[in-house]
Amino acid sequence: MAKVTKAQVDKDLRDKVFNDLMSYDADETEHWDYQKINDRQWGTVMMDLNGHMRYVRIGVIVAEERDDMSAEELMASEIEAYEAKQADKAEKAKKKAEKIAKDKARREAEAKAKEEQA
To answer: What is the pLDDT of residues 3-59, one digit of tens each?
Structure first.
């Protein structure tokens, strides 16, 4: 079995937990036994994509009250900031892929030109 990257493993575990918590379906076969760790966290043990048992914690963060914005505005601003960051990452990845393709084409053209000169 090929080793799955840490980022992929962590995302898969988070997705499973959030799916279990947010769209609980009693008919689904996969559910986890969440245990209280402390006043702010619950946890469970799950199998990751590499076949290892992992301890997964769920924490609850309560945002401070703010005088300059309502709770709804604060949540909306955090969502907007996250979406902007994701869009920026996607744009950077697109530019990187374009640069890689351009550099590859340039190297291939240079190699072809050398072959023709020889």
So the answer is: 999 999 999 999 999 988 888 666 666 678 899 999 999 999 999 999 999 999 999
Residue pair 30/20 in contact (Cβ under 8 Å)? The answer is yes
Q: Which residues pair with 45 in a beta bridge?
A: 55
Per-residue pLDDT tens over the stretch 65-107: 999 999 999 999 999 999 999 999 999 999 999 999 999 999 9
Distance in angstroms between the alpha carbons of the first and the last residue of the chain: 46
Q: What is the DSSP letter of 69?
A: S
Q: What is the DSSP string of 25-53?
A: -TT-S-----EE-SSSEEEEEEE-TTS-E
Measure Cα distances from 43 to 7, 46, 53, 69, 115 in Å. Answer: 20, 10, 13, 32, 62
